[in-house]
Amino acid sequence: MAEDFGRLLLRLGVGGLMLFHGVHTLLNGLDPVKTMLEAHKLPDVLAYVVYFGEIVGPLLVIVGLFARVGAFLIAVELAALVALGGVAQMIAITPDGGYALEVEALYLAGALAILLLGPGKLAIAKGRYQ
């Protein structure tokens, strides 16, 4: 049972905190994402994919319904974010000694852990993709 509570805590932490980014994006728009895409000569319509990684994915993870799919969406979002905006910071250290992409790395690690472990028994649905 402790493992299931651990998985629930992981799901709530990763999904809940990532959802804050999605709500911020909903309230403030996709202009920063579109700017990043334009800088890489990619169509700005791809910016709407952000909603899958910041809203749909976290909601699936939080409730434990297709949690592995939700975790995959979060992981893809973070990988794309690092590829588009953080490549120069991949080996950088901040002035206070932290890793420059530590927040992104923690979200990615958490999403990958959920993807590999599954949601546990304290989830809405059970099944292969849970």
Automatic annotation (TrEMBL):
Cellular location(s): Cell membrane
- For whether the record's keyword set contains Ribosomal protein, the answer is no
- The residue ranges crossing the membrane are 9-27, 47-67, 74-93, 105-124
Out of the domains of life, which is the source? Bacteria
One Pfam family, please name it.
DoxX
Membrane-topology descriptor? Multi-pass membrane protein
Presence of keyword Calcium: no
Using the UniProt record, give the first listed, main subcellular location.
Answer: membrane
Sorted keywords for this record are: Cell membrane, Membrane, Transmembrane, Transmembrane helix
Record family assignment: Belongs to the DoxX family.
What is the protein's name according to its record? DoxX family protein
